[in-house]
Amino acid sequence: MISIEELKYLAEISKINLTDDEINKFPPQLNKTIEYIDILEELASDESITLDLHEINFDELRDDVVKKSDGQPIIKNLTEEGFLRGPKMK
Amino acid sequence: MGHLHDLLAYEVVEGIKSQQFTAEQYVGSIIKRIEDVDSKLHSFITVDSEGALSSAKIIDRKIKEKEDIGSLPGVTIGIKDNISTKGIRTTCASKILEGYVPSYDATVIRKLKENGAIILGKLNLDEFGMGSTTEYSSFHSTHNPWNLDYVPGGSSGGSGAAVAAGECTVSLGSDTGGSIRCPASFCSVVGVKPTYGRVSRYGLISYANSLEQIGPICRSVKDAVMIMNIISGKDIMDNTSTQSTPIAIQSKLGKLNIAIIKELINGSDHDVTRTVYSASEKFKDIGYSCEEVSIKNLDYALPSYYTLASAEASSNLARYDNIRYGFDFPIEEYKWDTYFSNVRKNFGQEVKRRILIGSYVLSSGYYSKYYLKARMLRSLLKLELLKLFNKYDLLIGPTMPILPFKIGEKIDDPFKMYLIDINTVLANLAGIPAISIPVGFSNGLPIGLQIMAAPFQEQKLIDASLALEDTIDIQRRPNSI
Asked: With a CB-CB cutoff of 8 Å, which residues 24-63 of chain A face chain B?
């Protein structure tokens, strides 16, 4: 089950700042889901079961031909000089 | 003929091609319809009246000049707001993308436009497709046209409501765990989730990319076939897509063998069970055989779905850092190691919960316990279903185990909300096609029948659905709105 400490760790690795309200509210909500998915433990691991689900035919690869790019991407943060802005690295 | 906005897609095409009315007249009537009813329904996030009318005029000019107008001239399409439309903002009903305007069309959009269809606007959804009622939209909730106090289903709730209310001829939704079929069932319209890979996902903003497909929501099965045949096909921009055979309105398949999934029908509300059994009797009346079957791994399906979908969501939503696309969040005030976490607190709570669960099931110590087991179950389930499809052409059951419920009823208990997906996630886990068709009402609230087939056997789904549609005439448009 997820404790408040573990929740804070998950929020850190997910890069999401949680509000105080969410830090208190989420553990019981998430724990209901985790209790529910615990049932998956009943399934015995079976390495012979292939995890491949969707076959894709790779016979046809496209020709290695240079194509013109499809126009200017519209990116909100592009500066006039055409650069992307990001937060300051320190 | 009633109102223009009541016409089905194939009727619109006939009417415009035979010049009974112009595309401009038809689109004008649809825009008027939206103006009349959307303040009650809130199906739309963005309506592009100007673009739609200008496209209509182009169609009319082409008809006059006898140019090729494709197979869907004048058909107005509402697009779920997680499908990219060039020049029309695409928000995924999230604050995180509220300013995002794609610079390209999704492949499905391009194909529809090439055939003369008119993109009307963007329809409401649960944020990033995560939800079953459209209540998790960061804009507003959508209301069920059959009873405005009730949910329209989700996550493609706007798509279901708009079609039922005649706000567009047809709509597109996306389905990751039931998000086309649930609103189709709750709004008494037809919704199709194609076989995984039949329809290109290029331009669909990812939630869980091994589970989701774009599909049509329509007022008739024939309309769904028209849309499916346009949007299907291998696409070099989506390596999981593959070529498929077009679906025919009249096939030579003959009588089909059907099986009802015992656990799904027994787990449903009484009125739902009764109505679905009665629909299965109609299949017998037209000569299909109908037995009951059990699915051994059913109890693990929903836990497996939520494990996999959350895991994929946590990965797919990692890109939202407000650098390449986003909203107005000041860069200057934040350092690089706090910027992203601050930006990302603008996700809604349900999205946050799923990202956190996803991180949990993928993290060290839990990965084999949850994620690998879920993937294993997925294969087991698919094998089990394929074995059943060796014996039966189709598997049926209720689309939703319950009737539509009131807005606000389940919002405080997210876990209760998850449980209503129990019938629909099977098809996403196994990558098989599924349709929901309206089969009745209880106290004025719609009930849908779900039919599933083996991969790429959409023809069988359509045959059975058309046969049922011929036999039971279920109302697709509420009188009250």
From this structure: 26, 29-30, 32-34, 36-43, 45-46, 49-54, 56-57, 62
